[in-house]
Amino acid sequence: MWLTRTSLTYDFTDGANMGSGLGYYPKPIAPSSKITLDNSPAVATTAVAPSTSELPVTSGLPVTSPAGKTGAIVNNPGASIISSEEKAKIEDQKRQLDNMLSQIDELENLFKTKIARIDSKEMSPEIKLRNEALRGNTHLICPPSAKIVRIFTSSTFTDTKHERNMLMREAYPKIKEHCRNFGYEFQVVDMRWGVRDEATDDHMGTELCLRELRLYQKLSTGPSFVSLLSHKYGYIAFPRVILADEFESLMVQVEDPATIRLFRKWYSRDDNAVPPAYILASISTHLPDFISKDKNRQKVAKEEWWKESELMQDALESAATRVFDPETARKYIISVTETEVEEGLLKAEDSIARQAIWLRRNIEDIDCQESSYALSRFTECLGAQEKVEKAHRMLRELKEHRMERRLNPDQFFHYNVHWVGREGIEPETSEEHRKYLARLCKDFTDNMISMVTQAIRKRKLLHDRLTEECLQHIRLCQAKCAEFHGRTETLERIKSYLLDTSTTAPLVVHGISGTGKTSILAMSANLCKTWLNKTPKLVLRFLGTTVESSSVLPLLQSLVHQLSMLGNQRLRIGLTVDLLKVQLMVLLKQGTAECPLVVILDSLDQLDTSNNGRSLMWLPASLPPHCKVIVSSLPEEKYEAFPALKKLIPDEERFIQIDILLSTFRKCPTPLFLKLSFDEAMLWRSFDPPSRTVLQTTVRTAVDFLFGRLEKQHGRILVCRALAYLTLASNGITEAELDDVLSCDDDVLNDVYTYWTPPIRRLPPLLLVRMRTDIDQYIVERGADGVRVLNWYHRQFTEAAHERYCADDAHNKRLHGNLADFFAGTWANGTKKPYTNAKGEVMKEDRYVTSQPLRFGEKDYNIRALNNLSYHRLHAGHVDLLKKECLANVHFCVAKLHALPVEALLDDFTAAKAAFPGDLLIRGVLEALLLSRKGLQTDPDQFVPQLHGRLEDSETTAEFKQRLREYSSKVWFEPDVNILERPGGQLLHSIHVHASDIDMMTMTLCGTYVITVCQSLKEIKIWNIKVDPPRLLRKVTGKGQCTKVALCHGDEWVAMEVGNVIQVEELQTGKQCLDIPLKGRASAKTFCAAGKRMKTIVTLFRKQMNIYDVTNGSLMQTLTSSSDEAKFGAMSNPSGRDRYVGMTSDDQYFLSVLDLDSMTLMPAWRGFEKIPDGEGKFEEHEIEAFDISPDETYVVYTTLFTGEIVFADFNGNRLRSIPPAEKLNIRSINFTADGTCIYYISGSTVFVVNSSTLQEEDRLEHKIDYRRKHR
Q1: 3-class SS at 267?
Q2: Given 113, 330, 350, 898, which is the most exposed site by the fewest CB atoms within 10 A?
Q3: 3-class SS of residue 1120
Q4: What is the CA angle 46-49-52, rounded to 5?
Q5: Would you list the DSSP string of 513-570?
Q6: Per residue in 897-929, pLDDT tens?
Q7: Higher per-residue pLDDT: 115 or 559
Q8: pLDDT category, 1221, cuts 50, 70, 90?
Q9: What is the number of other CB atoms lying within 10 angstroms of the CB of residue 1079?
């Protein structure tokens, strides 16, 4: 059995009512022997004395926290009291300040108006960009938005080993930490580092290098290119693809038959390519031992390949110089390193080239060394003299005539060293070389940090948070439009909606997963200007793709901010969903005939469940003129959004269903299947055998086929782990996080390092780059926790990956543990992780992973760690570490409360309690947090005093309470009496329901749902109190003037009195069912639900009684009272059972009972006899509350004045009564479901009394005195 009551919260600094709440109690238990008084919802966090034992809590002034909440009372008789004159002076100063602020606001608005009139030609490019982004210009050229610094390191491989390893060990971690302090990620990809023979088999290395370089130039904030070019010109790449026309022209110039046979062996014409081209076969196609695990056989194959490739390379170079002009021929004769320098520096825009660095080492005596294999690793010296001289000549031209002229003097750093020993650079034996490497690291670190800092500051000045948000959605729109084809009919319907000036409802686009809703809305945004033949204000959001579009509160704040900027309005952005909804409705009115407003919100189902976002209570159902809103959603009920849309928008014409396409794909007719099939077919070459050109028949088999191909190409263990981490991640994973996690996974590294050990135990960057290249189009970047994370492009990929890589629970726990170790920083800050090498030896190596502090600087919190650490520890089953690092870690809890809503921490504890139900500490802290929720919402620093005051002293809590005491240097009171409700009692939860008094409340018979009404705020809310913690199910819209609610139709519907009608709607969905008339003045009418399963509505108006069938709204009977005693009104408070309905007269002196079976009203009787007052007059007592017994044989009622409780039959004959044994102030009285007990509320106590013996069975105590609160 559940009992309910209301509770009030006060601000003790000024006595203002802070709000109302719900308290939930379990079934009655033995009476408590200890009664305490809760003076406040929050305990003070600041005080003036460290020791509570020295501060008797007796009398004096309240000590308040920064949040204004009273804590203990400190004895201070000498404290001064502000006089009335001083108060008046303060109020006068306040008025003057308000006037000054108003003048400032007027000047600011005037200034904005002046600025808006400036011709756009006078604006800077940055201001133009911002204005166009705010207006939603989908044709805008968008700058990069990712908060990332990415560096491409270009070097020849064999001569810069020590430099690259030194940078990896010493420089990169420092720069990474510096970037972290700004909330930026730092990544360096050295495509030469860790390259294995398998990685060169398909000849993709050069293409991938250039692809990554171009990507870094686009994404990186600040520098993106570093060169280590020294004395070696480098390897000339063998072209993987040659256009057919060029290839055939080159072959005409090749005269040697053996060389021609080699070209025919290795190159095949692909007529599927556009234009046709010759494709170089992978090395293992003709030399399988090239990737053999037998070193000797591999060596033979490698020598054979290099011999044949050198012959073909010489022939290509010779032919190209004869056939083509110098520019066309260059791609056949320049080295990979020069190609990188051209892309990263020489051809780059000035802004990019200006931030490049050249670390230029010069070995002064290198020309004095004899030619040898060791020297050939530093400079070309072996082989044909002509080739050696050519390499030296091209290197000089690159360095002296191209790089030096492109770079400013402060962009390259000279280092002169000498050749030492056999290896040339030997820091192990040479002090000169050690100093050189140390100086190089310092120069690189200092200059990189300087450039990164300047770039981040400049970006902050140019791009505020709102502009970045708008740009991100414009980028996604452009990407979707680039791939869009067809859908003409659907687009025409959307166009018609935008041009229709008569409709005021939003437009809903819906369809199952994979039908292309996002692309359709993106194309609609792109075509808005063309369709309307004018430039609209376009507000565009693809929900779930950024941090601010993933939850309803930041989404509304972002929308309101953008709309206020578009309307040139200065607005203080609301902090609650309710206030933001009001602001949104006002701002939607800014559209005009010349400049309409269009709002597009894609994927409402992608909103998370916080603040009840998917209920769409915030979305306007009716729009002002010249405003259009287009939304999309999945239709499934489990995502909640679509049922809410059906309730919000009753007009079926405002819904567009996206049907599946392509009748030729009847087995799986969805665009996703077509895309997968098309992408697979794009890999087919005209010379492939039929066995390799087969399409799958379903989306799942197509995805599985894709996964299988990835495993063959990149190694099964690497692919399995990488995709498993991506799938198991709580809310996506960043590329840098995935790189770090894989670098700590020794199963992956042991497989990668089977026949080769790199200088640093990390995953070679090229391996992850190669894999992501092959799956990039099925991965989406979205915002989460303030960063850009990788996630699956589609739910079908998530499900397939779960089934393929995450089916084993024990295996998943290991991977969750690895992810948790990363977010805990277990292997960061130089901590070496142990592993077992190929010889069976246990070794330890630093993995150089990112550290994970709870805070970055003073203001920024590590949201990634705060959200992910507890999640992965829980799913790893690490209960002890979960408590140590998170739930019993005071620093973690306080940081999370500061950074995120209270519900985020409650969710952690709720999930932990479900996973580890026997853990007493987790359960106890969760119960304490639920009781402390209101205080923590006001002031996160209340965590320490709230938890310390609510947790009982026990062996379970002793260590945790000691951590609470040791947490902070702040002084706070530890009262010597219990002033806070503690877990383990009758009170389970305390919920902040409304910001003002609750006027009415009702609960379903099953105890699952509670309906609350707050008339002063015009709010009706429906709560699910069976979930832990209780959550808002929905907020009733459009019923703000409701004066009464009643559950009916088996608790499936709710009836609400609104004006002159009773509106009936479905409890959970809000779908309108029917209206029942209820005319008359509000003070003279009321109603209730009764009958079997509450399918009857009884309305009362003066002496008239109407009885309706709630299933169809028909009037069943009208009765009229002939007695003056039975005159009804708003104070009659009717209450119904299956057969009988009880009601008082409007003056509450008389009680009547209606028999629904016979449709007769029994005679009214007086509840309490008149009492002579000794002066010839009589004192009359009203019937404050009553209830009909569950067996419908008698009633119980009481009066507010004496507290007497009377049991009587339906004719008014007293059966028994309970005279007041103590002064009671009873406002409600009810039977329990089985009728064995009655319960009533008086002051701060719920009394439970046996209805037969009249003996008290239990008291449920609360620390708030309701009698005092309502006085």
Answers
A1: strand
A2: 350
A3: strand
A4: 95
A5: TTS-HHHHHHHHHHHHHHHHTS--EEEEEETTSSGGGSSHHHHHHHHHHHHHHHTT--
A6: 998 888 889 889 989 999 999 999 999 999 899
A7: 559
A8: low
A9: 11
